[in-house]
Amino acid sequence: MITDARLSGILLHPSSLPSRYGIGSLGPEAYQFIDWLVSCGQKVWQLLPLGPTDWSHSPYQCYSAFAGNPDLISLDLLVEDGLLANGDLSTLKPVSGSKINFKRVEALRQPLLKKAFGRFTELHITDGHDYQFFWNIHSWWLESWSLFYACRANIVAKDWSEWDEGLKHREAATLEKYYFEYKTDVDYQRFLQFIFFKQWFALKNYANAREVKIFGDIPLYVSYDSADVWANQELFLLDEKSRPTLVGGVPPDYFSATGQLWGNPLFDWDKLEQRGYDWWLARIHFNLTLFDWVRIDHFRGLESFWAIPANETTAIGGSWMKAHGDAMLERLKSQLGDLPVIAEDLGIITEEVNQLRKKYNLPGMKVLQFAFASDATNEHLPHQHERDFVVYTGTHDNDTTLGWLGSIAPDEKTYLSQYIGSDSPTHWDMMRLAMASVAQIAIIPMQDVLGLGQNGRMNKPGTVKHNWIWKMSASGFDKKLGARLLEITQRYGR
Q: Among 94, 193, 275, 401, which is 20 to 30 Å from 481 by CA?
């Protein structure tokens, strides 16, 4: 169990915070959100992975499992640090709307980030103690990340497998050559990471000082086109051309009749075993410096994973293969003791997966939107919950609760109405069920607090367009909404 207290909190990714610059950041709006959480009696802020996203802008498809997303760097805080002037921002036309336009955001932000980098270089901050300390602590991943992204910015190629052989296979002389050739871009990437983590840790400290826990997320897999795979090719199932032989996904399920084909390369668990699971252990330890708790997304893949031949166009043709999650978690437990980890145990869950979760006392997840499609034995129904779980009205992969209420089948809605004793169930009814659950932690997506319909949905699994773009308005931090949320939080002892 990760906590003895009954707690509740809000699921909201920083990119969705209100901002005049078109995308939320780690700046003033994030601090305002934490203050609002405190005023509403919420003790947990859950967010999605913080890595630099690929073309899909999915936090679950990142160019690095360790680097932070520069899109989340606060321009306002760069002014406070003296790396930008007030005049640099005063002329910017505010970017309005409830959707993120990533192309527009990049066009607005990149010149300013590069200007800040120029000032950073002029002030010789790289010679200072803070930067040197950051480099000493993070060089084990930052060195490969900074060169990887500098090469991506300069080499015309689909991905790193098309780079020249010396660079692709990381020959020492070739790496040194490219470090020298792209030195300015390498230094720029190091600067961005220094700023990101400076802002992030200041924000986390602010939250923790106000007794708000930060609840992070670790995707099971990493992207093929990432610094992680390029720098650790022996740990993945790749062919002689360094291309994946098998890729990840899930078989047909609630979300998709053809399953989900994620395309991520799969781990070579035998090689990981030979190395003492060092990469995985480093990844979890690193994330536990960023967050108070972490959720392992697709936890069942630590027991067995759905392996799909890389040439398949859907996930139907995959098969289950065994992972070494038990051995890895055993080593982690020997290092940490009790694990501050939550298992995302949704989907096709076997008894073996349940036993793995229980062996390490990891809370699982219950989702109320999955609760009313069968009968009273449904494990997601509140009367079936146990303390050692995190309950959600919905997750980032679900429709908003209001959108879901408007689209569920008649028999499902009838059962829900009978269950709550109302012919017209609302999103507040669902939030109340989550708060009333015996589950130790209740998490409500911010869209549900705001009462948004389908237009507020964050992600639709199995699709690649129109996801990850929702952004709230500044009016979302409403005092009346906050007071109502506080009332139901206190009513159920959270």
A: 94
**C-alpha distances in angstroms, 336 versus 111, 288, 488?**
43, 10, 35
Q: Is the dihedral of CA 43, 49, 51, 56 positive or negative?
A: negative
Active-site entry in 76, 292, 297, 448 = 297
Q: Is residue 462 part of a domain?
A: yes
Task: Give the active site residue among 397, 399, 429, 448.
Answer: 397
Q: Which residues pair with 44 in a beta bridge?
A: 9, 213
- Mind giving me the DSSP string for 199-253? HHHHHHHHHHHTT-EEEEEEESS--SSSHHHHHTGGGB-B-TTS-BSEEEEE-S-
CA quadruple 23, 205, 116, 222: dihedral, nearest 10: -60
Residue 357 has which token pair?
């979760």
The domain total for the chain is 1
Q: Look-up: residue for tokens 């607005």?
A: 108
- Give me the tens of pLDDT residue by residue for the chain, a chain 494 residues long: 789 999 999 999 999 999 999 999 999 999 999 999 999 999 999 999 999 999 999 999 999 999 999 999 999 999 999 999 999 998 888 888 899 999 999 999 999 999 999 999 998 877 888 999 999 999 999 999 999 999 999 999 999 999 999 999 999 999 999 999 999 999 999 999 999 999 999 999 999 999 999 999 999 999 999 999 999 999 999 999 999 999 999 998 776 889 889 999 999 999 999 999 999 999 999 999 999 999 999 999 999 999 999 999 999 999 999 999 999 999 999 999 999 999 999 988 999 999 999 999 999 999 999 999 999 999 999 999 999 999 999 999 999 999 999 999 999 999 999 999 999 999 999 999 999 999 999 999 999 999 999 999 999 987 888 999 999 998 889 999 999 999 999 999 99
In DSSP notation, 423-446 reads SS--HHHHHHHHHHSSSSEEEEEH
Would residue 150 count as lying in a domain? no
Q: What is the CATH number of the domain that holds 313?
A: 3.20.20.80
Residue 410 in domain: yes
Query: Which pTM does this prediction carry?
Result: 0.96
Measure the CA–CA gap between 47 and 294, rounded to whole angstroms: 10
Q: What is the residue range of 281's domain?
A: 7-58+201-491
List 76, 303, 344, 399, catalytic entry? 344
Is 397 catalytic? The answer is yes
Q: Kindly list the distances between the CA atom of residue 451 and the CA atoms of 47, 140, 191, 380, in Å, as whole numbers in the listed order.
A: 19, 44, 40, 22
Task: Report the alpha-carbon distance of residue 169 to residue 174 in Å, rounded.
Answer: 9
At 272 the three-state DSSP class reads helix
